[in-house]
Amino acid sequence: MTAIEPSAGPASSSQLARERAVGAVQSFGAPIVLVIVVIVASFSFPTFFTATNLTNILLQSSFLLIVGIGMTFVIVTGGIDLSVGSVFALGGVLAAYASQWGWVAALVVPLVVGALIGAIQGALVAWGGMAPFIVTLAGLLAVRGIVLAITNGGSTTPLITDPVLKVIGQGGLAGIEWPVIIGLVLLVIGIVLLTRSRTGQGVVAVGGSENASTLMGLPVARVKMSVYVLSGIMAALAGALNAAYTSSGVPVVGVGMELSAISAVVIGGTLLTGGKGSLIGTLAGVLLLGVIQNIINQVGSLTSSVQSIVSGGFLAVVVIIQTVLSRQQRL
Amino acid sequence: MSSVTIRLPRQGAGLALLQKYGVYLAIVLILVANLLVTPNFFTVDNLRTQLVQVVPVLIVALGMALVIGTEGIDLSVGASMAMAAAVLPLYIGYGFVPALIIALVAALVIGLTNGVLVAFVGVQPIVATLSLMVAGRGLALLVAGEQLRPVIDPSVLALGRGTVFGVPWAVLIAAALVAIIAVLVNRTTFGKQLVAVGGNRRAAELAGLPVKRILLVIYLVCAVLAAVAGIIGTARLAASVPSTIGNLIELSAITAVVVGGTPLSGGQVKIAGTVAGALLLQIITATLVKHNVPDAYSQIIQAAIIVVAVYIQRGKVFTK
Amino acid sequence: MTESSTSNPAGADVSSASAGTPVLQARGVSKRFSGVTALDGIDFTVLPGEAHALMGENGAGKSTLIKVLTGVYQPDDGELALHGEPVRFARPLDAQKSGVSTIYQEVNLIPLMSVAQNIFLGREPRGFLGLIDHRRMYADARELLGTYGIQVDVRRPLRSLALGVQQMVALARAVSINARVVIMDEPTSSLETAEVETLFRVIGMLRAEGIAIVYVSHRMDEIYRVCEKVTVLRDGKVVHVGDLAELPRVELVSKMLGRSVDAVAKGGATSFSEDSHVSEATPVLTATDLSRRHQIDGVGLTIRPGEVVGLGGLLGAGRSETLKGISGVMQLDRGSVVIDGQTVRSGSVPAAIRAGIVMLPEDRKAEGIIPGLSVRDNIVLAALPRLSKAGFSSRKNQDAVVDVFMKRLRIKASSPDQAVSELSGGNQQKVMIARWLAMSPKVLLLDEPTRGIDVGAKAEVQALIDELAKEGLAIVLVSSELEEVVEGADRVVVLRDGQVVTELTGDQVDEKHLLDAIAGDGAASVVGADEPTSTTTDTEEPA
């Protein structure tokens, strides 16, 4: 029996080597840059590499991490969720309102509403055949409208008095705050889900080729729907935790958060075209943004506009690298 | 390229008519409804106010229509507006015209970056312009020193408040731009070529069209139009507010374009429809304001309009 | 309406087609699309272990029938039966679960995922806590592919493999989902010769296991080599069912075309005129040393006005790449194109067009037509700058050009304003040719000009190529149909592995010489030339 050696065709050994190299850059680029930035910052700012500052960065990043986990799943399917910032705010406001009925309600209500919003958006994308960015852009607007509507146009800020909720937001275990622990646990669950479950493989497959996935019998519409539900839940949860952390449901939080989340995910090596994603990369992307924010704060003379220039510029650079690399791979 | 495509079910003739004329029908319906239930809607003053208010969105939507026609999207229009608004007061000391030119050039930098990223690097338009949306506004704020500056130059103020035979300057400028863009799209080689690029980029390349140059020019035009809108907006406010000007305007502009019958999948540009789409959004907002509907609800209503409009237009796909 | 379709006694003497309950059956299946009947009362029967060819011209209903059989479409009338029991496939998954799998022309897998993931997607082996057991998945994938003699690193992303191997992965997946019937839709169209052989070997193994194959292909050689039964469709109806061995090739073609045998046998299979247009004129175009890594290597070509030069060779030999290199579509590493003494800037389509070189691309849908635009806009697309004044387009100038070409090429459209996407494939192809003729080119490069268009349009396009050459245009013709190259070209330059191996002129331009040249060193078996039936279309089939 003659064996077919895959030497003919598009893969010669040098190409294979290059493909591996490109893959490595895509997978490990963000963690490596993160380590370099941390080292440079540690030498430049004496207050940077201190336990207080580092735990502070972790805590500040944990909310974005949770949003980013949901966003990673969405982007892996080739979609995008621009509504997360608004859902984040709604989650916080709802958690604060619901905290009057106890901490369980304060967590359950936002999650249910977040799931519902995700389900509506997901249904429009999956069964309505509409472009994800337009659906979720409308979602961004509508959910922000809902937030304003239930807070008297943003003038009311419901407060949290429930002690358990306060502990969840502000307490911790072994010096690590609960939001960080929750974020990391969700990250681990997400990694297992994405790489080791049939559902997760379905998510990757749908992003890789919708047509092929349909023909291979995957429930494409259901997969697409579910990632938006997940993203809605994660954004609402992050919002609720943030409310617990600040003891109040501030209606104006989360503006522009979708951009940070998308940046973090893309910086982490997840392809915006879908079909390939890394949650570890998302963690690295989130931390990178957090560290940069922290450095800008350390410098002091820099303003928030520099933060947006840096993150916008960072996103552009990463996307350029991704585009050039994937074009290389295609040759 | 895949051999098996799963098609949406074919739409009926009714849907086709709705796609084509739905926006005009909606305008008529809402105007009639206002005639019946809204006092003081059909006054010259109110109509003039509505026209003036729609100008920024309308001008931005013109550029957006061109970009969408090439199967692209520009989320950075708000940043271009902010950039123009930030730069204008800084150079107004040199006179109105030089300041105007510098402001437009500043916005061109954003358009140029978008165009290079999309056309030459090959980045997806949504991501390229997303990064410019963030970075561009940051840059505008940095240029402005994160400050709000009052504008007192009489020429600028006239741009915002002055009229010719009772017609506001802003409206005249918008009308002129509409005419220019309409001629560009319907009567020039460039117009046909941009639609061809949106319809089938690969085929346009093989037909010898300068695809990259066309895309670059489109993003430049879009940024300049947004800058004009930013300057008019600044003139109306008599203040340069780079932190908020044009926030979420990309959403209104995209809505106007799509409501007006230009499909997001590219290959078509409907200028009259875009104008009608912008007007429709404006009279809906005006109606809600007149009836004291809180801002929160008008946001939700606008979101609903986007979804419905895109849902209706979504069948207009030619290639995949 | 149809000849006896079930348990044809003639099928009994074919060894592996064990008589018995049909594994898959369509009974009186009809399908309409917005008033147009695509399938009309189709009866189609597949027995276990048989290889059944499904034949028909474009538009005969083959692909619609396949989609009904695999659950992509639901029949409007009639029913499907599996092992004799009526069955309904609501979606492709239902069909797959019932043992009906499909291999498509373009590999329909997930390019970014690994080979193993592709094979086991949706049914990955699971271990601890229901989590995917990657190690077992890789081992199973390796073993499965090994049974078909394919050894690859199953952890590699699918897209890093050659197309043929990808096709095998698709096949392995289909079979491993317990397929009883595998439908193959043009499976060999993008495969290398060696890969085709592997495919045929695997098909043999599958049949031995009692798995039925429904084989769709335009390649007659393959059909006669692989299949024993045939069902011929025309205009949505079954026009013939029977054993392939009893059906001479020419009769099969005549049934597909709906013409009498005499008409087909007469005067070859194409509409090119007999007389050649040999030209002694000075070359209009000289291409030398065209090279690009992995694609073409030192290809040279001269073309004189008024002659048709064919490019022969297998898929991947560098034919399309040569055209792309000359027309500026593909950046060259090396080499030059000189037209009328002027060197053309490499890698620039506009420069090539300005110099008078135009190319009709192979993939009309993806690279040719602009679907949303009208027939007029599509025709004038390239010529637009010339028909405009100061950047403003002139409708009068356009109409003059459009009018001429719509008449000359007999483009059937309700008006120039009709959307080009509404035209038939043949008319779209004519629009594409009109687009280039409107540029008054000196050299016309045609890549598969008659692929995927109906018989009538094919004849018209072939006649047009002849006519254009007579008028003095220099034409390069690439076609995967041997007879089209042989009958259409005055000279044939033969490529192999990206290099020119020989040039056939005069009497050498026939299918035998061409086959030998393509295969090289007498190893003519590559394209099945050792089979008595492969060279001409009108030989009887003794098998």
UniProtKB/TrEMBL annotation, chain A:
CDD domains: TM_PBP1_transp_AraH_like (cd06579). Keywords: Cell membrane, Membrane, Transmembrane, Transmembrane helix. One of its GO terms (cellular component) is plasma membrane. It is a multi-pass membrane protein. It comes from the Bacteria. Its main location: membrane. This is ABC transporter permease. It comes from Schumannella soli. The lineage of its organism: Bacteria, Bacillati, Actinomycetota, Actinomycetes, Micrococcales.
From TrEMBL, chain B:
The keyword Cell membrane applies. Keywords: Cell membrane, Membrane, Transmembrane, Transmembrane helix. The chain crosses the membrane at residues 21-44, 50-68, 127-145, 165-185, 214-239, 245-264, 271-290, 296-312. It is found in: Cell membrane. One of its GO terms (molecular function) is transmembrane transporter activity. InterPro entries: ABC_transp_permease. One of its GO terms (cellular component) is plasma membrane. It holds the Pfam family BPD_transp_2. It is a multi-pass membrane protein. It comes from the Bacteria. Its main location: membrane. The keyword Hydrolase does not apply. PANTHER family: ABC TRANSPORTER PERMEASE PROTEIN YPHD-RELATED-RELATED (PTHR32196), GALACTOFURANOSE TRANSPORTER PERMEASE PROTEIN YTFT (PTHR32196:SF19). This is ABC transporter permease. It comes from Schumannella soli.
